Amino acid sequence: MTDVKVCGIITVEALAAAVNGGATHVGFVFFAPSPRNLSFDGAAALAAAAPDHVRRVGVFVDPDEELLERAIQAGRLHAVQLHRTAPQRTGHLRQRTGLETWTAVAVKGRADLTGARDYIGAADRILFDAKTPASAALPGGMGVRFDWSLLDGFQHLLPWALSGGLDPANVKEAIRRTGAPLVDASSGLENAPGVKSVDKITAFLQAVAAS
Q1: A Gene Ontology biological process annotation (predicted)?
Q2: What CATH number should be reported for the domain holding residue 159?
Q3: Which residues neighbour 56 within 8 Å (Cβ) at sequence distance 6 or greater?
């Protein structure tokens, strides 16, 4: 069974759709430029409504330690997911928080995959995400996918997850093609940036369950 993270949740309705549909993880974004950014109060309200068997993952872009600590407390996070964060700092934050730590590796070509090896000993899980343009304000959540065939024959040295442009229509193929143990979707489950669709969340989780 493939695990599923529904990321960028900002409403109780979206949270309920994820939980009721069988998501194993939900993602709370703490990054001000994102349309999915949560306030600490918003994160606390969602955490209060989330059952503990669904793991709450905080999503950050090279955060300062005050933001990280306040978000962990507000969202009662089980794990942190770091974007654009160097291996040494990732390891430092992992040690400081004591939480399961994911790191996003942006992928466009095969050479990008080798960057995952730099995080051995620093992160607990690698999230392979599509590389966004250098000028993009956001490191993810833009509906961009990478060529899944790049993962063919790649030796995974850490637990990993697949992200980038996943939606109800393509997730079964993504799992079949890559064997991903965990899939992570955000913009592919929305009607507009930051506006999650209960129907799309439900359809996505049904597609994963049927894969």
Answers
A1: L-tryptophan biosynthetic process
A2: 3.20.20.70
A3: 25, 26, 28, 47, 50, 75, 76, 77, 78, 79
Tell me the β-bridge partners of 29. 37, 59
Catalytic site includes residue 7: yes
Point out the catalytic residue in the list 7, 64, 112, 152.
Answer: 7
Q: Which helix (H) or strand (E) holds 83?
A: strand 79-83
**Over the stretch 81-116, which tens digit does the pLDDT of each residue have?**
999 999 999 999 999 999 999 999 999 998 999 889
Segments in the chain forming alpha helices (H): 12-21, 40-49, 65-75, 87-97, 110-113, 171-178, 198-209
Structural domain harbouring 75: 3-209
Whether 129 is catalytic is yes
Q: What is the reported pTM?
A: 0.93
Total tally of structural domains belonging to the chain: 1
Q: What is the tens place of the pLDDT at every residue in 179-209?
A: 999 999 999 999 999 999 999 999 999 999 9
